[in-house]
Amino acid sequence: MSTFAQMIENITPEIYQSLKTAVEIGKWSDGRKLTAEQKELSLQAVIAWEIKNLPEEQRTGYMGPQECASKSAPIANILFKSDSVH
Predict the structure, then answer these.
(1) Where are the domains of the chain?
(2) Predicted pLDDT of residue 54
(3) What is the pLDDT of residues 42-53, one digit of tens each?
(4) Are 17 and 54 in contact (CB under 8 A)?
(5) What average pLDDT does the structure give for the chain?
(6) 28-32, 35-39, 40-44, 72-76: which has the minimum mean pLDDT?
(7) What is the pLDDT of residue 72?
(8) What is the SS3 assignment for the chain?
């Protein structure tokens, strides 16, 4: 029996797409529902295949570069006002 890594090596782009769709909709192409174990293993296979074959920004779960929303807003300096009386 082959290992998980060997199985990933044998996944074609067509098989990858079929597994991805099955995970997304929870059913195989013939309409049978995925079991919890099948869904878990299929998702693991999809992610492992993507790591080997897709750039990071095309992988499942990619969020892209993000910044805190408050980072772009200027912060008022309330300690040292330029119009204060000395």
Answers:
(1) 4-62
(2) 93
(3) 999 999 999 999
(4) no
(5) 87
(6) 72-76
(7) 65
(8) CCCHHHHHHCCCHHHHHHHHHHHHHCECCCCCECCHHHHHHHHHHHHHHHHHHCCHHHCCCCCCCCCCHHHHCCCCCCCCCCCCCC
β-sheet bridge partners, residue 27: 33
Residue 50 makes CB contacts below 8 A (sequence gap 6+) with: 16, 58, 59, 60
CA-to-CA separations, 48 to 13, 31, 40, 70, in angstroms, rounded: 13, 25, 12, 35
Q: For residue 49, give the nearest of 58, 30, 37, 22 by alpha carbon.
A: 58
At 77 the pLDDT is 72
DSSP bridge pairs for 33: 27
The pLDDT value recorded for residue 76 is 72
Task: Select from 51, 48, 42 the least CA-distant residue to 20.
Answer: 42
